[in-house]
Amino acid sequence: xxxxxxxxxxxxxxxxxxxxxxxxxxxxxxxxxxxxxxxxxxxxxxxxxxxxxxxxxxxxxxxxxxxxxxxxxxxxxxxxxxxxxxxxxxxxxxxxxxxxxxxxxxxxxxxxxxxxxxxxxxxxxxxxxxxxxxxxxxxxxxxx
Length: 144
Fold this sequence. Notes:
It comes from Paenibacillus mesotrionivorans. By secondary structure, the protein is mainly alpha-helical. The chain has a single domain, classed as Orthogonal Bundle (Arc Repressor Mutant, subunit A). The chain contains six helices and three strands, in the order H-H-E-H-H-E-E-H-H. Helix 2 crosses helix 5 and helix 3 crosses helix 4. It has a three-stranded antiparallel β-sheet with strand order 1-3-2. The mean pLDDT is 91. A hairpin with a 2-residue loop joins strand 2 and strand 3. The chain is elongated, with a radius of gyration of 19 Å.
């Protein structure tokens, strides 16, 4: 690779890292101290999948089941999720969103959309389309 390519790679990496950190920081600041980034991710996942086994959540967030258990304990105390017995497997527990979890998620989506709108305001309509298309091209397919 040429020096120009190395410079471009470094610029890409730095810009991507700064964007992601800034976006997450802004989102969490506006959400307040009531939820963490990993908890927010779990809410999105459970909303999309419906009732989920703890092991599925652990696989998705790539942590040990014991770490997910602690996270779900906190989320349950906050009223965002509830555990239920799995009728198909008495050894398993399912996690599902509560009304409060749905509200937290709706608030997060609203704030996320406002932030994206703010970022988009810096771009022309054509640049928005190109940027979105490039990100879709670079993003790995979802594992589900």
